[in-house]
Write a sequence for this structure.
C-alpha cells in the first residue's frame, strides 16, 4: 500500500474500481484543455445570411414574429451587404416580398429581369462585389396562392414549373447571382437549371439544392416576412418531404447530386440534425442547413421572456449544426454571431 492510496469509508467501492484509470474529466478541467480538444468550431466562414427585400427606398420594416429582422429596400440591403462583408460573412441569400399587385397564378413576375430580387442582386454586386449572392428560384413570393409552383386545377404542376424555374435561374445568374438555390422541390429541377445555366454561358454559377426540404410548421414567420401568410391555400405536402421520412431524404439528395447539384441543404435545421449527418456520411459533399424562421422566433421569444440566455442558445444551436456535419448554416442570426465571433 503506497501513501497515495485514497482512504475510503469501510465497504465503499473506490472510484477507481468503477472507472479503472479512465477519467474523461481530465481534459475538461480547464479552459486551455477544453480548447485543445474541442472538435468543432463555429467561425464566421460558416455563415450565410438570409435577408428580406421590399420595394421603395430607405425602408426597414420590422417583422413581428422575427425580432431584429427587417424587410429591406434595395438601398438598405446594399448597406447591410456592406456590413456583412466587413464582418467577413461569405454570402447572403435574398428573399423578396413582392407587392400583391404583381402576383399571379403562375408567378410570372419571376421572369421579369428587373424584378425586386434581380434588381437587388445587381445593386449588391455593384456595391459589394466580394460577397457571394445566393438567390432562390421558388415561385412562392410571386404567386397569388403562395405555392412554390404553378397551380392548375388544384395541382402544382411539376414540369411546367420546372421550365419556369430554370428560366428564372438564368435571369438571376444574368443579374449576378453566384449560387442558385431552388427551394421548390419540383422533380427534375436541378438538371433543368444546370442545363439552362450552361446553355446560357453560366457554367460557373453553382447550385445549392434545397435537396431535403420538409413539409414543416417551422416556416410560419417567413411567410409573414414575404407576405404569403394569408395567401397560402392548403399545404405543401404534395411537393415537400414528409417530416416523418429519412430514407426519402437520402433518395432526394442522391437525385439532386446526379442532376448536378454542387451543394446540399437540409431545411429546417435543428429538428433535422439526423438528416444532416446521414447526408454528410453518405455523400461527403458540401452540406448546409437552414435554421429557419420558426427556429429563430423560438429562440428570440424565449430569450425576450428571460427564459433562456438567447445568445448562448444561438451559439450552441449553430455549433450543433457543425457537429452534425454541416459546412455552413443559413441563419438570421448571422450578423450578430459574426459580431460576437469578431470579439
Ligand atoms: C419557400 C420557402 C420557404 C422558406 C424559404 N423559402 C418555406 C415556405 O414558405 O414554405 C422558409 C424559410 C424560413 O422559414 O426561414 N420556397
Amino acid at each position: 500500500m503506497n501513501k497515495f492510496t485514497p482512504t475510503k469509508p469501510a465497504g465503499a467501492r473506490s472510484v477507481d474500481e468503477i472507472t479503472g484509470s479512465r477519467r474523461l474529466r481530465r481534459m475538461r478541467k480547464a479552459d486551455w484543455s477544453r480548447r485543445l480538444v474541442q472538435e468543432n468550431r463555429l467561425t464566421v466562414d460558416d455563415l450565410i445570411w438570409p435577408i428580406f427585400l421590399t420595394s421603395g427606398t430607405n425602408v426597414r420594416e420590422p417583422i413581428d414574429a422575427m425580432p431584429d429582422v427587417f424587410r429591406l429596400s434595395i438601398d438598405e440591403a446594399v448597406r447591410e451587404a456592406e456590413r456583412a462583408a466587413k464582418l467577413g460573412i461569405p454570402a447572403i441569400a435574398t428573399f423578396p416580398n413582392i407587392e400583391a399587385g404583381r402576383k399571379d397564378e403562375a408567378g410570372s413576375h419571376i421572369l421579369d429581369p428587373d424584378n425586386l430580387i434581380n434588381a437587388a442582386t445587381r445593386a449588391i454586386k455593384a456595391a459589394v462585389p466580394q460577397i457571394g449572392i445566393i438567390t432562390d428560384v421558388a415561385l412562392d413570393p410571386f404567386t397569388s396562392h403562395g405555392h412554390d409552383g404553378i397551380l392548375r386545377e388544384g395541382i402544382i404542376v411539376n414540369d411546367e414549373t420546372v421550365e419556369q424555374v430554370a428560366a428564372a435561374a438564368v435571369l438571376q445568374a444574368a443579374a449576378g447571382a453566384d449560387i442558385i438555390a431552388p427551394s421548390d422541390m419540383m422533380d427534375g429541377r436541378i438538371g433543368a437549371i444546370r442545363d439552362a445555366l450552361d446553355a446560357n454561358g453560366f457554367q460557373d454559377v453553382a447550385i445549392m439544392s434545397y435537396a431535403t426540404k420538409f413539409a414543416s410548421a417551422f416556416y410560419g414567420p417567413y411567410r409573414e416576412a414575404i407576405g404569403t401568410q394569408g395567401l397560402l391555400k392548403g399545404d405543401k405536402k404534395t411537393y415537400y418531404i414528409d417530416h416523418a421520412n429519412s430514407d426519402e431524404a437520402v433518395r432526394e439528395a442522391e437525385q439532386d447530386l446526379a442532376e448536378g447539384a454542387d451543394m446540399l441543404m437540409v431545411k429546417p435545421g435543428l429538428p433535422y440534425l439526423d438528416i444532416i449527418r446521414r447526408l454528410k456520411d453518405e455523400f461527403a459533399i458540401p452540406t448546409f442547413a437552414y435554421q429557419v424562421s420558426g427556429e429563430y422566433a423560438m429562440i428570440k421569444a424565449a430569450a425576450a421572456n428571460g427564459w433562456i440566455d438567447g445568445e448562448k442558445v444561438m451559439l450552441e444551436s449553430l455549433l450543433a449544426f457543425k457537429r452534425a456535419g454541416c459546412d455552413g448554416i443559413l441563419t438570421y442570426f448571422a450578423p450578430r454571431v459574426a459580431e460576437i465571433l469578431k470579439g
Q: What stands out?
A: Residues 265 and 288 are 5 Å apart (CA to CA).
